[in-house]
């Protein structure tokens, strides 16, 4: 449901990406140059970020739709999220998650440590409707300018996946896409090493059976070349494989017109609040487009 007439408030984690907070600020500036209707920002970062020349310029040019929160700490890509969270609470992505949890913001946007974003979103925002899983769904540029969705793209990259997890990924991804894309049905495929039902690990073979029973439009096992065809709308996979596929496709398509920069953000599903995750290597254009995607599908 669209928030007609209501300002959408986005809490942006300025810290922790592969590049400087300057890229996040430049992305916000690029976004605001053409999309400053019905959106406000709370930009969260260290004093170096919130008092930087670009931040001060933003404050001056957009005083009514920008707020800044200064924090003492932020998590780097190389930091372990669990260990870091045990030592620090007032760090940038945790503060963003808290803003969403308290309904002071509608959406968390981060290009920082994915593990920390997932951890703090689950801890502070919480699961929705009894969910116990929060996969990442990404939209990948496909054939003929169509988008192909994939989940999980890395939320659960460090654990073994169960058949039931893969079914939950499919259910959450299907529900999200049916609502946001206003479609009646989706073609769902299970990423595997072959199309035969006997292929894959035990979890994948069992998931194939469960998905076939759950979804009338389940197309069965699909191989990686599915991303270059127009035969599937949602690809379901474990987070480890999904994250590798995502990075490979990004590298292959980065010089093409329909590169990952044109989408810019993925979505963390299954939570009480909205969370968008950008790639750590995002440039300012990818950040701006990621914010546009959030406004399009979440506002």
At a glance:
The chain has 299 residues and is of the alpha/beta class. The chain has 10 helices and 11 strands.
Structure write-up:
With 299 residues, this protein is an alpha/beta fold. The protein folds into 2 domains: 1-126 and 271-299, Isopropylmalate Dehydrogenase (3-Layer(aba) Sandwich), CATH 3.40.718.10; 135-259, Isopropylmalate Dehydrogenase, CATH 3.40.718.10. The protein is 39% helix and 17% strand. It has an 11-stranded mixed β-sheet with strand order 3-2-1-4-11-10-5-6-9-7-8, sandwiched between helices. A hairpin with a 5-residue loop joins strand 5 and strand 6 (147-151).
State the main characteristics.
alpha/beta; 299 residues; 2 domains; Isopropylmalate Dehydrogenase; 11-stranded mixed sheet; 10 helices
The level of helicity is: 25-40%
Second rung of CATH, namely the architecture of the largest domain: 3-Layer(aba) Sandwich
Q: With helices defined by DSSP (H or I, 4 residues minimum), what is the helix count?
A: 10
User: What is the CA-based Rg, rounded?
Assistant: 19 Å
Shape: globular
Counted up, domains total: 2
Helix and strand pattern: EHEHHEHHEHEEHEHEEHEEH
Annotate the secondary structure layout:
Blueprint: E1 8-13, H1 21-34, E2 39-45, H2 47-50, H3 53-61, E3 66-70, H4 81-87, H5 92-101, E4 107-110, H6 114-125, E5 136-141, E6 147-151, H7 163-180, E7 188-191, H8 202-214, E8 218-222, E9 234-236, H9 239-253, E10 266-268, E11 274-277, H10 284-298
Parallel strand pairs: 1-2, 1-4, 2-3, 4-11, 6-9, 7-8, 7-9
Antiparallel strand pairs: 5-6, 5-10, 10-11
């Amino acid at each position: 449901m669209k928030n007609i007439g209501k300002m959408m408030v986005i809490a942006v984690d300025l810290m922790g990406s592969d590049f400087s907070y300057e890229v996040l600020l430049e992305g916000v500036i690029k976004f605001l140059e053409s999309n400053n209707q019905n959106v406000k920002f709370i930009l969260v970062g260290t004093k170096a970020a919130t008092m930087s020349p670009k931040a001060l310029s933003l404050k001056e040019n957009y005083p009514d739709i920008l707020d800044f929160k200064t924090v003492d700490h932020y998590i780097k890509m190389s930091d372990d999220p669990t260990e870091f969270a045990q030592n620090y609470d007032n760090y940038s992505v945790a503060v963003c998650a808290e803003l969403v949890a308290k309904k002071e913001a509608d959406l968390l946007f981060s290009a920082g440590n994915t593990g920390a974003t997932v951890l703090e979103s689950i801890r502070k925002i919480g699961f929705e409707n009894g969910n116990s899983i929060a996969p990442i769904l990404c939209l990948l540029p496909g054939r003929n300018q169509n988008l192909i969705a994939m989940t999980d793209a890395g939320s659960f990259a460090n654990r073994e996946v169960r058949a039931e997890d893969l079914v939950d990924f499919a259910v959450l991804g299907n529900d999200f896409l049916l609502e946001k894309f206003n479609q009646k049905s989706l073609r769902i495929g299970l990423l595997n090493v072959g199309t035969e039902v006997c292929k894959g690990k035990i979890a994948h073979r069992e998931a194939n059976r469960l998905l076939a029973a759950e979804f009338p439009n389940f197309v069965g096992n699909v191989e990686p070349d599915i991303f270059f065809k127009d035969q599937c709308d949602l690809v379901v996979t474990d987070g480890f494989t999904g994250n590798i596929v995502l990075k490979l496709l990004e590298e292959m398509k980065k010089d093409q017109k329909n590169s990952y920069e044109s989408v810019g953000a993925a979505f963390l599903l299954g939570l009480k609040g909205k969370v968008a995750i950008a790639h750590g290597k995002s440039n300012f254009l990818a950040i701006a487009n990621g914010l546009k995607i959030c406004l399009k599908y979440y506002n």
